[in-house]
Design a protein that fits this description.
Blueprint: H1 3-12, H2 18-36, H3 45-56, H4 62-75
Length: 76
Amino acid sequence: MTLWRQVLAALTDDTRNDATREKIVARGAARLAAHRAPEGRQPTPDAITDTAFHEFHLLLTAAQARTALREIRARG
């Protein structure tokens, strides 16, 4: 399943626990922030938390944002 389908499912499926939903949406926010970052630059945790809040109406912690950033870097 693509990341965006996972994000959509996480936002609409109440059967998942909150931690799982937040992790999936955090990866989506990290990916979106990376796409919006200037050429050759990585998004900051602040950019990820801002994206999660404005795009997905989810408050992330800095630790969640850093974890999501590490995961998208590892997956490419």
